[in-house]
Amino acid sequence: MPTFTAPDGTRLAYHVTGDGDPLVCLPGGPADSRYLGDLGGLSAHRRLILLDLRGTGRSAIPADTTSYRCDRQVDDVEALRQHLGLSRTDVLAHSAGANLATRYAARYPGRVGKLVMVGPGVRAVGIAISGETRREVALLRMGEPWFPQAFAALEAITEGAGTGSDWEAIAPFLYGRWDAAAREHHAAGQPADTEVVALFGAEGAFDPQATRAALAAVTAPVLLLAGEFDLNSPPRTVSEFAELFPNATLAVQPGAGHCPWLDAPDHFASTTLTFLDRAPA
Asked: What is the spatial distance between Cα 27 and Cα 118, in angstroms, rounded to a whole number?
């Protein structure tokens, strides 16, 4: 397993799979990056560099746990770029990892080649997702056998009365199909350390006003890909996010949830590759 040293001395690990031009991949969670798999076959066309964020997967636990904060991890991504010997790097980020990618692009706009954000988290830019927006997405699944229980749990969470079991009960809303593969993927993708998750978004991790202003200088092409059924990152919210970039493309994958490469691998890979292979305007 290849590793490199972060600016504070923490040893960070990454997984390499596939061939072709490198694509640095930032997982959500923060969780072990292996849940990303080969991103729906994307590794057949790109060399995926899947970073285990500090304290996850094979990466070390830092001496200073406040460095789990999203803004503190931006220089980990920059250190990886330097380690790989790239003048610029294409980046793909999923879920909470999109907050890190956004802060990276804002701090180092000239180091980003192309940026793909899949089911992106939006805390870095301060976009609020209303309960009504989530309900609208959830109601698209009314015909599913699991819907009554999952929707009741969503209502409890929306009203501020949700429990741990309610959060688990809404998991089907995150997948286009709630089948055995989705259940297995959901279980495997859960963060192993709740402290890492909590500290990632600790006070000071995000500065939405400053980040929004900085994104005006990010001229790199950006693809924001939302799943039609994604309760975590609804298409309406992702569309609002796209408006913050000077050169953004929005794609909504039909029938997909929060992990669209799992729901329809060929569709996901085709959309992503078409964007990555597009010649600069």
From this structure: 10
Q: Are 268 and 214 in contact (CB under 8 A)?
A: no
Query: For residue range 92-130, what is the model confidence (pLDDT) as tens digits?
Result: 999 999 999 999 999 999 999 999 999 999 999 999 999
List, in order of start, the domains of the chain with CATH numbers. 3-126+192-277 (3.40.50.1820)
pLDDT of residue 281: 61
Please list the residues that pair with 5 across neighbouring strands. 11
Work out the angle between the directed axes of helices 147-158 and 131-138 (0-180°, nearest 10).
180
Q: Which two tokens stand for residue 130?
A: 């209303």
Nearest to 126 by CA among 18, 240, 275: 240
Spatial distance between the Cα atoms of 257 and 93, rounded to a whole number of angstroms: 16
- Per-residue pLDDT tens over the stretch 11-28: 999 999 999 999 999 999
CB 117 within 8 A of CB 101: yes
